[in-house]
Specification:
20% helix, 26% strand, 9-stranded mixed sheet, 6 helices, alpha+beta, globular
């Protein structure tokens, strides 16, 4: 495995660059380039249309667990190849909540049309943290993109834990937090994300049972690192505390976790892939491209 910190800058003027199909060649050792000091690793030198050697899969998995997200460029893959790559890392269940790609119930479409103002994932969150066993991660592939905007931010929650004071770590070590699906329609008052009263009541009724309790500090099962496991979209309160009592500390933790030094920003191009570790990373899909279409394919790897 070779590692380099070199980067290549591409112009963002005009339409987004399209994926350039490459000759089908055997995969060699990947080249890994950190995207920031704590979060994200770009993987170059692999063609995901081809089978991955075990050594390459292990190198990608190590980078995923340590850096929270791995990204790939110029991957002209079909849905079957997308699914095959995700399955290298675990079981891929049918997609929930999303329309799926024709013939592939495991691949959900994350779509925003030009007339829509609300996007999917437009706030910091960890996927399905309201479930007893959240996903290991997700593989997101760009199909159609706006000419500008639509980037995704990632935050490494192990790095966030590392930068907490000893006293706050001790306080948090015994706390558990309630995560609820319905909180997604209560936690964000931005105009484009605010539902009507009727929508909110229907959402609350539909997802009344989708909640669970997780420790505020977890241990990553592969790296052994301690991880801060809260997020502003789904975390409601600390167990045994009221929402009002919980709010100041949760707000502090959310702000701390998403400080710039704990994050990276991924600028999409068609054919780009981001694979994030849902156990250690938050993500945020920016909603800054109203009037344009964006279509992504997502395969979720089960926890």
């Amino acid at each position: 495995m070779r590692t380099t910190t070199g980067t290549r800058v591409r112009s963002r003027t005009g339409p987004r660059a399209r994926a350039r199909p490459r000759a089908a060649i055997p995969n060699a050792a990947p080249v890994l380039r950190p995207m920031s000091a704590t979060t994200g690793m770009e993987v170059a030198g692999v063609d995901l249309r081809q089978p991955l050697p075990e050594e390459t899969t292990r190198a990608i998995r190590r980078a995923l667990c340590e850096w929270g997200v791995v990204t790939f460029r110029d991957q002209a893959i079909a849905p079957a190849q997308h699914l095959a790559f995700a399955r290298r890392f675990g079981e891929v269940p049918p997609s929930e909540f999303l329309v799926t790609a024709p013939g592939f119930p495991q691949i959900g479409e994350i779509r925003k049309e030009p007339d829509q103002t609300r996007n999917v994932g437009g706030n910091w969150h960890s996927d399905h943290s309201f479930d007893p066993v959240p996903p290991l991660g997700a593989v997101l592939y760009a199909r159609e993109l706006p000419a500008r905007g639509g980037d995704t931010l990632f935050a490494n929650m192990a790095a966030a834990y590392d930068s907490l004071s000893d006293g706050l770590r001790e306080t948090l070590s015994s706390l558990r937090a309630v995560h609820a699906k319905r909180n997604a329609f209560h936690a964000d008052d931005r105009p484009e994300r605010r539902p009507s009263a009727a929508q909110r009541a229907r959402f609350d009724e539909e997802y009344a049972g989708r909640e669970c309790v997780h420790p505020v500090i977890t241990t990553h099962p592969e790296t052994g690192r301690r991880v801060l496991f809260v997020n502003p979209t789904y975390t409601v309160r600390f167990e045994g505390w009221t929402g009002r009592e919980s709010a100041p500390l949760l707000q502090y933790l959310h702000a701390h976790a998403t400080r710039p030094e704990n994050t990276c920003r991924f600028q999409w191009r068609e054919g780009s892939i981001a694979f994030w570790d849902n156990r250690t990373a938050l993500h945020y899909a920016l909603n800054d491209y109203h009037g344009a279409r964006r279509l992504m394919h997502r395969a979720v790897v089960a926890g």
